[in-house]
Write a structure and sequence with these properties.
It is built from eleven helices and eight strands. It is an alpha/beta fold. The chain has one domain: Alpha-Beta Barrel (TIM Barrel). The chain has an eight-stranded parallel barrel with strand order 1-2-3-4-5-6-7-8, surrounded by nine helices. The protein is globular. The structure holds zinc ion. Zinc ion binds next to loops. The site of zinc ion (ZN) has 5 residues, from loops. Pfam families: F_bP_aldolase. Its cofactor is Zn(2+).
């Protein structure tokens, strides 16, 4: 069933677990995610990232995600990931998305607040949840654009500013920067749990962890215990899918393209099952 992000994360808060967000730039990735959630009877979030519009436009994949969510026996949120403008947000809402992220974190603080407020006003009128970002989420350059920079105080989310930001914008969830990066990790991540706790205490809303694939089981559990309710998990699953395809290609002759899509989907399904099991404390 299709649910808003707010509803999905409220239950997660009550149960002290996190809901996995999986990006769906292909039909296989969406089906792998839904099948994993159905197998485990766990809630999930299917996302279309605005940057993936180059791979598949939202007009094509969006209705598929909404349909998969409506037909699922588990709660599914359909979410726009890293939306950069109101036009894209409106497009997602028209298609039937139940949640959007507006990422105006590159703007000045005041501009970020104003942009997010405008999106919240529009989205809430349509019963759609909003996630926004404060602080700068960097990328490793592998599976994500290299944003460079490593000065923690400048990049990480300030807990006091987070409080002000949430009060002014009335968002439903906050993407906070506390040590994770997008893409494949080059160095072991160093997570700032104190900062995460302070942010969560100050905002009293669910915290979203971006760059959430590639952490250890212990790190996932710690972040959940410190207030993370949504984990954006994708790069490592996408890498696992590609590795499975590579192995299949090396082991078989006379290969057809459609066989590869099945191999990729099954690997994503297994990878997502492991992730969901950890996020929801269900055990693998
Ligand atoms: Zn992100």
């Amino acid at each position: 069933m299709l649910v808003t992000l707010k509803e999905n994360l409220k239950k997660a808060d009550e149960g002290n677990y996190a809901v996995g967000q999986f990006n769906c730039p292909t039909l296989e990735s969406a089906r792998g995610a839904i099948e994993a959630a159905e197998d485990l009877q766990a809630p999930i979030i299917l996302a279309h990232a605005e940057v993936h519009d180059e791979i598949i436009p939202i007009e094509l994949i969006g209705p598929v995600l909404v349909r998969l969510a409506k037909e699922a026996s588990v709660p599914v949120t359909v979410h726009l990931d890293h939306g950069t403008n109101l036009e894209m947000v409106k497009k997602a809402i028209d298609i039937g998305f139940s949640s959007v992220m507006i990422d105006a974190s590159v703007l000045t603080y005041e501009e970020n607040v104003n942009t997010v407020k405008e999106v919240v006003e529009y989205a809430h009128k349509n019963n759609v949840s909003v996630e926004a970002e404060l602080g700068v989420m960097t990328s490793s350059g592998i599976g994500g654009e290299d944003t460079g920079g490593d000065n923690e105080d400048e990049l990480y989310t300030d807990p006091d500013i987070a409080k002000d930001f949430v009060e002014k914008t009335n968002i439903d969830a906050l993407a906070a920067a506390f040590g994770t990066v997008h893409g494949i990790y080059v160095n072991k991540p160093n997570l700032d749990y104190d900062r995460l706790s302070k942010i969560h205490d100050n905002i009293q809303r669910p915290v979203v962890m971006h760059g959430g694939s590639g952490l250890s089981e212990e790190e996932y559990i710690n972040t959940i215990n410190h207030g993370v309710r949504k984990i954006n998990y994708y790069s490592y699953a996408a890498k696992a899918g590609a590795d499975a395809v590579k192995k299949y290609v090396n082991q078989h002759e006379d290969i057809f393209y459609h066989d590869l899509t099945v191999v990729a989907k099954e690997e994503l399904r297994n990878n997502y099952k492991k992730a969901i099991s950890i996020f929801t404390n269900k055990g693998v």
